[in-house]
Every structure is written in structure tokens, then in C-alpha cells.
Specification:
Shape: globular
Oligomer: single chain
Strand content: under 5%
Number of strands: 0
């Protein structure tokens, strides 16, 4: 039982390590968050939810594999090597393929102008929700570009100056 718990601990450690160093992974996590939140507005069927969740997990999984390939390649050699370049480029291509397919499917699932307008007007009629949404976007941008440690520094820095 302890080895299984340790395996989960190691897996979560891998996610957190990758989140600290990979801006693209942080972007995908933020995008996944907003896709899930706004999917409730679009009242997706169970099948569409399954597709959305598979795409999200596929993109994040591909990004984690790509991070593993990049880290392992950099550990092997920092010198230019054509085979390592191909491995890194192929890992990045896997993420690109998943992302493009997700964008196409998102267009098919979410391009409903009536629901998009209704969602926009809902936020415009509820200023508090609009403000919370804007704050969440700001926090998301800080998270993407500064990482989890950047958010921690941002909040502790502001707390000290108050």
C-alpha cells in the first residue's frame, strides 16, 4: 500500500514540478479551467463532456510527456544533437496536434452565437460576477507568466506592504 501511495505522490510531484517550469503547461491548465467552467453554460451532453475531458487530459498529458522528453534530452547533452532536436520537436508536435484538434472541436461544440451573447449579457448585467471574472483573468495571466511561485510572491509582497 505504501508503494502505491508513493507512486501517486511521485506523479503529483511531477505535475507540480512541470507546472513550476513550463509556461505552456500552465497555459493549458488555465485554458482547461475556463473551458470546464464555461461548458456548464453550454449544457453539454454526456458524450460532449467526455470528449472535452479527454481532450483536456490528452493535451496536458502530451505536454507532460514533452516536458519529460525535454528534461531528459537536456540532461543527456547540452550540445546540439540532431536526434535530440527531432525528439524535442516531435514532442512539441504532439502537443500541437492535440491543441489544434481541441480548438476545432471547441469551435464545433461552442460556436452558438445565441449562447455566447446570452453569456456576455449575463456578465454585463451582473457587475460583481464580471469583476470576479476579470480578477480571475488577471490571476490566470500572473500564474501563466510567473508560475505558482510568482503568485505566492505577488500575494506575500502585497501583504507585507499593507
Amino acid at each position: 500500500m505504501k508503494s502505491r501511495i508513493k507512486s501517486f505522490k511521485n506523479a503529483f510531484s511531477g505535475i507540480f514540478c512541470a507546472l513550476k517550469e513550463e509556461i505552456h503547461l500552465r497555459f493549458h491548465f488555465v485554458a482547461a479551467f475556463y473551458v470546464i467552467v464555461f461548458s456548464f453554460w453550454f449544457e453539454l451532453s454526456a458524450l460532449k463532456w467526455a470528449v472535452v475531458l479527454l481532450l483536456i487530459s490528452g493535451i496536458i498529458g502530451a505536454e507532460l510527456f514533452n516536458t519529460a522528453i525535454e528534461n531528459l534530452s537536456d540532461r543527456i547533452t547540452e550540445e546540439y544533437d540532431e536526434k535530440i532536436k527531432i525528439a524535442k520537436d516531435t514532442g512539441a508536435a504532439a502537443v500541437l496536434v492535440m491543441s489544434v484538434s481541441a480548438i476545432i472541436i471547441a469551435f464545433l461544440f461552442y460556436f452558438d452565437l445565441e449562447k455566447i451573447y446570452a453569456l456576455a449579457f449575463y456578465y454585463l448585467r451582473n457587475p460583481l460576477l464580471l469583476i470576479l471574472f476579470i480578477i480571475s483573468l488577471i490571476i490566470s495571466v500572473v500564474f501563466i507568466f510567473a508560475g505558482p511561485t510568482g503568485i505566492k510572491r505577488f500575494f506575500t509582497k502585497n501583504k507585507k506592504s499593507a
